[in-house]
Amino acid sequence: MALLTPEDLENLLDKLNHNNEIIKKNTGMDIAEICHAIYGTNPGNERIGIIPITSGNGIISNFSASLLAITDYFGMDGFITKHPDITGYYEAITGKADIILMADDHIFIAHNLRNGKIATNHVCTGVIYAEIASRYIHADSKEILVIGMGKVGYAGAEHLVNKGFTVYACDPDKKIMEKAKKELGVIPYRCDGTRKFSMVLEATPNPNTISEGMVAERCLVSTPGIPCGLPEEIGRRKGVDLVMEPLVIGVAAMLYSVI
Ligand code: NAD
Ligand code: 2YH
Fold first, then answer.
1. How far is the CA of 140 from the centre of ligand 1 (A)?
2. pLDDT per position in the chain (259 positions), as tens?
């Protein structure tokens, strides 16, 4: 699994503001409004305990500080525990955290200790990037393309199917595609350029996954994938609007989903 790097987390709030502008221009809503539309919640006075975790590849510098900045941005009362791991957990509980945020190399969770709700970053990221793509105000149909049906893309595709969209999907992993056809009813997409989409959710860890034949002129590409799958020249030539941000949008969805 790809780990975030400290470089990914540089200038996070600039990236957030830039993406928020693109999201507003293309959906008429900002990130907080989209989170509210999905989960029906609004931040109150929740206290968020952020626990650094040392297992596996260890602490990512800036990760906890970035989470704190995110809680701050969405009007929540966050704090980072002084100690990591179990000692940090104890500190968060005795420090009266309502919600715990913590990640190891495999999973990143938000757990609301008051109402028992728990969320994972991969599901919430898939759902919110799918929701953003699906709200494209210039969309020419209810057809949407999902590129990459792993943990993030699958959750996004499921959300879109539940919203009544016709979901085309591609992934080189045949087993995943079989499951997605059977369980979600997605339509396998062959990248032959015969069908172009005005809404695209890209969720792969690879660059250049989007080819010219997949995208309509002036489409919206919504991608949490790191690195970005949209080649710059295709984006320019086709006038693509691109939503792509390494952490904040997914974390916002996690927090709203457990409030
Ligand atoms: P995953 O490994 O579970 O799934 C990735 C899928 O992409 C795999 O099924 C793979 O077969 C498929 N794939 C690879 N190349 C492809 C191609 N050319 N065309 C179609 N499919 C292709 O990974 P994941 O957990 O779903 O994460 C996906 C990406 O999202 C990663 O880059 C991850 O780092 C990133 N991510 C970003 C955020 C964020 O907030 N921006 C949050 C979570 C994950
Ligand atoms: O980046 C990650 C993993 N890819 C899991 C995220 C799931 N999308 N984890 C962050 C690890 C943070 C580290 N343990 C810390 O600083 O606490």
1. 26
2. 577 898 989 999 999 999 999 999 999 999 999 999 999 999 999 999 999 999 999 999 999 999 999 999 999 999 999 999 999 999 999 999 999 999 999 999 999 999 999 999 999 999 999 999 999 999 989 999 999 999 999 999 999 999 999 999 999 999 999 999 999 999 999 876 679 999 999 999 999 999 999 999 999 999 999 999 999 999 999 999 999 999 999 999 999 999 9
**Cβ atoms 132, 155 nearer than 8 A:** no
* 166 membership: H or E segment, kind and range: strand 166-170
Exposed (0-12), middle (13-18) or buried (19+): which is 118, by Cβ within 10 Å? middle
CATH architecture of 123-245: 3-Layer(aba) Sandwich (3.40)
Pocket lining: 109 vs ligand 2, CB cutoff 6 Å: no
CB 57 within 8 Å of CB 63: no
Let me know if domain 6-121+250-258 sits in CATH 3.40.50.12150.
yes
Give the domain ranges of the chain: 6-121+250-258, 123-245
Pocket probe mutation, ligand 1, options 1, 4, 122, 204, max atoms within 8 Å of Cβ? 204
